[in-house]
Amino acid sequence: MKSIIDDYSLRARFYPSLIVLLPAFVVAIFYITDIEKYYHYFTALCGLGLFSYVLAQLGRDRGKKKEPDLFVAFGGKPTTQIMRYKDTHLNSISKNRYRSLLEQMIPNLILPTQIEENNDPIAADEIYDSCARFLISRTRDNQKYYLLYKENTSYGFRRNLWAMKGIAITIILVVMAIHIYNATAQLQYLNDFTNKDIFLAAFLIFTMCIWIFVVTKNWVKMIAFSYAERLFETLE
Predict the structure, then answer these.
(1) For 27-69, how does the pLDDT look when each residue is reduced to its tens digit (9 = 90+)?
(2) Which of 16, 51, 65, 224 is most buried as measured by Cβ atoms within 10 A of its Cβ?
(3) CA-to-CA distance for 51 and 75, rounded, in angstroms?
């Protein structure tokens, strides 16, 4: 029986949601002081799981919705760009070999020459995009094309995480405000921070830095082009 949550959904959709909610979860656990009442922890875990599942669906939708913005920033779909003559992600020998294999594999396909591509880049991109879609349709066997599947999962993870960046930063700011408010007794004792308070604040600041400086369009771009390379490698 197929699992309700498959491997792709778990890694590319559910895990990003867990990461987004992690700061709120850590702060919630921090303020659960009655250790003997374990149901508080159970409630927190259930809440994290429920909100993560809901956010996973929203994250996937946001990822797909914002994906065109990524492609614009990249200069086009990586699976399209990689076949352009001017693109350097593939060396010319590999690119010419892939072009030859595509023309043998796809009936009536005539790929544009370099001059034709320069004269009408939009038409050329449409042909390259069609080739990529053809390859995607024939590589859906995750076991046979496991390396491609891993790259696709990594891309989905990064894309969805980037798409939820605004939500994540908002959550961190909110829980940081709650933490400061509680740690200072409703802002009455601004210098009365314990070591635990400082550690939690440092964790939230570190998490914020990760979101700001690591989860970027370039971070997604790196794996997007890696996936594109793996996709065309399936021709051989």
Answers:
(1) 766 666 554 455 555 555 555 555 566 566 666 778 888 999 9
(2) 16
(3) 35
Rounded average pLDDT over 101-129: 95
| Helix/strand/coil percent split, the chain, to 5 | 75, 0, 25
Q: How many CB atoms neighbour CB 95 within 10 A? A: 18
CB 121 within 8 A of CB 129: no
Residue 44 Rama label (left phi>0; alpha psi -120 to 50; beta): alpha
If you ran DSSP here, which 8-state letter would residue 190 be given?
A: T
Residues 6+ apart with CB under 8 A from 212: 169
Let me know how long the chain is. 236
Continuous segment of H or E residues that includes residue 138: none
In the structure encoding, which two tokens stand for residue 214, read together? Answer: 């690591």
Helix boundaries (H) for 75-194? 78-81, 92-105, 114-119, 121-137, 146-163, 165-183
* Rounded CA separation 175/80 (Å): 42
Cα four-point dihedral sign 150, 151, 157, 160: negative
Q: What does the alpha-carbon distance between residue 169 and residue 214 come to, in Å, rounded to a whole number?
A: 13
Amino acid, single-letter form, for residue 181: Y
